[in-house]
Amino acid sequence: MEQMLSGAIAAGWGIAGLFFCRFWRRTGDRFFLWFALSFWLEAVNRIALGLLVAAQEDSPLIYGLRVVSYGFILYAIWYKNRPRS
Fold first, then answer.
1. Are 66 and 49 contacting, i.e. CB atoms less than 8 angstroms apart?
2. How far is residue 65's CA from residue 63's CA, in Å, rounded to a whole number?
3. In the prediction, which pLDDT does 14 show?
4. What angle do CA 84, 70, 18 make, to 5 degrees?
5. Could you tell me what percent of the chain has a pLDDT over 70?
6. CA–CA gap between residue 63 and residue 66 (Å, rounded)
7. Which residues of 44-79 are buried (b: 16+ CB within 10 A; e: fewer)?
8. CB count, 10 Å around CB of 8?
9. pTM attached to this predicted model
10. Number of helices and strands (H, E) in the chain?
C-alpha cells in the first residue's frame, strides 16, 4: 500500500511538472522551467523512495534530492525578483 501511494504522489508531482512545462513553452519564462524541474525532481525523489527498500525519509540521498528541488524553487523566485540593471 505504501508503494502504491508513493507512486500516486510521484504521478502528481510529474503532472504538476508538465503543467509548469506547458506554461514555460507558452511564455518562455524561465521561472516556470525551474518550477517544472523542481517538481520532476520531487517525482524522482518519490520514485526512489518507493523503489529503494533501504531508503528512509531522512537518508542523505532522499534528503539531498529534496534540498536540491527546493533550491530550484528558491532560485526561480530569486531570479524572477532580482533587480534588473
1. no
2. 6
3. 96
4. 90
5. 100
6. 5
7. ebbbbbbeeeeeeeeeeebeebbeebeebbeebeee
8. 11
9. 0.87
10. 3, 0
C-alpha cell at 25: 513553452
Task: Indicate whether 55 pLDDT > 80.
Answer: no
DSSP state of 19: H
Amino acid in position 43: A
Write out the residue range of the structural domain in which residue 37 sits: 2-81
Model confidence pLDDT, tens digit, residues 24-37: 999 999 999 999 99
Tell which wins on pLDDT, 42 or 84. 42
Instruction: State residue 82 phi and psi, 5-degree precision.
Output: -70, 150
Q: Number of structural domains, the chain? A: 1
Ramachandran quadrant class, 2 (left: phi over 0; alpha: psi -120 to 50; beta: rest): alpha
Q: How confident is the model at residue 9 (pLDDT cuts 50, 70, 90)?
A: very high
